[in-house]
Write a structure and sequence with these properties.
Helix content: 25-40%
Distance between the termini: 21 Å
Radius of gyration: 17 Å
Number of helices: 9
Low-confidence stretches: none
Number of strands: 10
Length: 263
């Protein structure tokens, strides 16, 4: 039976600005990427989000990004490797304070936004993120795109897993269509659910040109800032179940496969 994790970016409010769909969204997930305060999130939001994940039995992961509240972490910021390392370690540690207080384990790290894109190709940034994870807790899983980050993480003996995006369109080279281009973000729950099922059962996903991209995903990612995120997550989870796909936290997916996933 195929098995996959269903994860979304959550806790991305800040101060008076909230994503009110988080509670409904979390109830459909098996894992959560929780913002750590740099691109979104604050101490109150982080605590509330971890509590909701704990109540729902959802595995918690850190979602570190560039220090860019204004740009939601989606702008490139030129940093040294050391700065990326210390910023990532700082954010993991901040979220871990709340998971420890709640009595849950911090299970994975998944870089956010522009940082998540850059660690696909920039080995200096990838080394920095991987070293921060290794120094904090080498048992945590590094989740992200295929490319430089999993390579650097495996070099440090870390477990890696691959994210598949079903509410974003891909280019034929495996990169995501930039948000500045038309149809970069998908909104139709039915279409997104169909993409999720095909990705898990066939290892393929259609690109912006209509061609198929071969991709093996350990975790299906949904974006929590999509206004329809809760409805999409519910539809995706139902479609996966109907297709005979088991949905489980990332740690269980990795364990079920018996080997460290490649990416």
């Amino acid at each position: 039976m195929p098995i996959v994790d269903l994860v979304a970016d959550v806790g991305e409010g800040f101060g008076a600005y909230r994503h009110d769909t988080d509670r409904q969204l979390i109830s459909s997930l098996t894992s959560a990427n929780v913002a750590c305060g740099f691109h979104a999130g604050d101490p109150r939001v982080m605590r509330r989000t971890v509590e909701r994940c704990s109540e729902a039995g959802v595995s918690v992961g850190a979602h570190p990004g560039f220090p860019d509240l204004v740009g939601f972490g989606r702008r490139a910021i030129e940093c040294s490797e050391y700065e990326v390392y210390t910023d990532t370690l700082y954010q993991i540690g901040a979220l871990a304070a709340f998971t420890r207080a709640q009595g849950v384990r911090l299970a994975h790290v998944s870089p956010h936004g522009r940082l998540g894109n850059l660690v696909q190709t920039r080995h200096d940034y990838a080394r920095a993120v991987a070293r921060a994870v290794a120094d904090f807790d080498p048992e945590m899983i590094v989740l992200g795109f295929p490319g430089a980050l999993p390579a650097e993480a495996r070099r440090l003996g870390l477990t890696t897993a691959v994210t598949g995006f079903v509410d974003r369109s891909y280019r034929p080279d495996g990169s995501l269509t930039p948000r500045s281009e038309p149809h970069a973000v998908l909104h139709d729950p039915g279409e997104i659910a169909e993409r999720a099922v095909r990705l898990v059962t066939e290892g393929k996903i259609s690109t912006a040109t209509g061609a198929d991209l071969e991709l093996r995903a350990d975790s299906i990612l949904l974006h929590g800032d999509n206004p329809s995120a809760a409805a999409i997550a519910l539809r995706v989870r139902g479609a996966l179940g109907a297709a005979g796909v088991a949905v489980a936290p990332l740690t269980e997916v990795v364990r079920a496969r018996g080997t460290t996933p490649t990416g």
